[in-house]
Every structure is written in structure tokens, then in C-alpha cells.
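Format notes (please read before filing issues)

Several people have asked whether sequences and C-alpha cells are stored in separate files. They are not. Every record keeps both together, in the order shown below: the sequence lines, then the C-alpha cell lines. Line labels are part of the format and must not be stripped during preprocessing.
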Amino acid sequence: MSAFRIDRTTPLSADEAWRRLTDWPAHADQVPLTTISVLTPGPTRVGTVLVARSALGAAGFDDPMEVVRWQPPAPGLSGHCRLEKRGRTVTGWAEIQVRGEAGLTRVRWEEELRVGRLPRLLDPLTARAAQAVFGRVVGRLLRG
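Then the structure lines:
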């Protein structure tokens, strides 16, 4: 598995940071050649299913995911979302944590993923590439 973690601090409220980070279609606005479809009627909750489709023309793959933990931030409580990746090409999980403290909000995005038939030898390279992509996505979503 390729594992990585992204930590950010933002002046946004925990509620606003959560709203932006869990606006699934907005993620696709930050990733070239990718669209995201939410297959389950809103609002997001445990059991919500979404599919990220990455493609160039007819060549591409789907990354289906299911929300298995959904705890929005509340006074004195951190927000926590866990997505399980259920595809044939990409498997693993992602977790988003949002914690407000002292006028700032701390965000953590952790992920473990496995990409299809890529040899495990390439896991460190995959992790670095994914961390760069998702780091950019998180940063842009938090800047709005």
C-alpha cells in the first residue's frame, strides 16, 4: 500500500473547512481529467457512494468509494470522514479530519491506496505523487 498524510492549518472555521473538503464534486475541479459523481441522494452520510472517473477520451478508470464514517465537526468535537475505495483499479481508504482550536482549524488527510497491477516496488513513488496531487487539492479547496 502507498500511504501518505497531508496536514494543513487554515483560518476557516471547522464547519467551513469541513464543508469545502467534503464537497465531492469540487474535488474534481482541482484534478485534471477527473469527474466525480455522487450516486447516493444527499446529504452525505454513512453509505454515501461516489465515483471519481479519471479519463483521457475513452481510456480511463473509475475509483468508486463509500463513506463508512461520517462525523461532522461540532462544538468540542473533531470532524471525521472515512472513505473506503472499492474499485478494481484503486483500493484502500482515505480519512479526513477537521479540528478547530484557538481560532484556527487543523486539517489532516490520510490515505492508503493500491493502484491496480503496479508493482509494490513503486509504492513510494505512488505515495509521493498522490501526496502532491491531494496536497494541491486540499490547499485549493481550503483557499476557495
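For reference, the curators noted about this record: The longest helix spans residues 123-143. The CA atoms of residues 50 and 104 lie 30 Å apart.
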